[in-house]
Predict the 3D structure of the following.
Amino acid sequence: MKRYFITGTDTDAGKTLVSSALLQKAQQQGLTTFGLKPVAAGCESVKTDNGLQWQNEDAQLLRQYSTEQQEYSRHNPIALQAAIAPHIAAEQENTALSCNDLLTACQPGLSVAADFQLVEGAGGWLVPLNNTETLADFAGELDAEVILVVGLRLGCINHALLSAQVIQNCGAKLVGWVANSLSADMEAQAGNLAFLRQWFEHRQIPLLGHTPYVAGIDRTQPEQLQTITDCLTLPTV
């Protein structure tokens, strides 16, 4: 089994779009897959066979594109209601987040046998779990290799370089990055992308793909997601 932790340069960088496409790509290459969203904010009440359950749209997608599909809570053990920073959402629900508790909550998911296991963070690399711990601490405990999604927008170069350097300074292995276009008309996108390409290439961090902006894409439809999937390669390290 190969396990990856996917993070982004910021909130809405496109982590879930890329994660879903990577899971689809792995499945198409004959691998068994499992997607895990340890903690998700902005959940909605969903009617299930066992009653109402708080679920998150991103986690639902990871579950949908997993070949080893499990009950929802294995894909997303911590589901918070407010669409804000997870540690603040948890405080509003009188819940404390910690690295150890999150690891314990994720064990049922982490124990699912799959060739390609993808764990998606929330927001960026240093999103807090509490006053002293961040998701970076959690990723370190997983001993997972890291994929960085760079949302192409104004300021993305600074965000990408900072994220990559902090990931590596934490001792994590950054095995690839994805450039994700967030709009159809980003000014000087080619110039931004050219700088990022040479910067990452100089550090021998491979580009796993440049995914285009697709207006109105329905990520739940595999044939529409395929447009993104076709632009990606799986990490080879």
The longest helix spans residues 15-28.
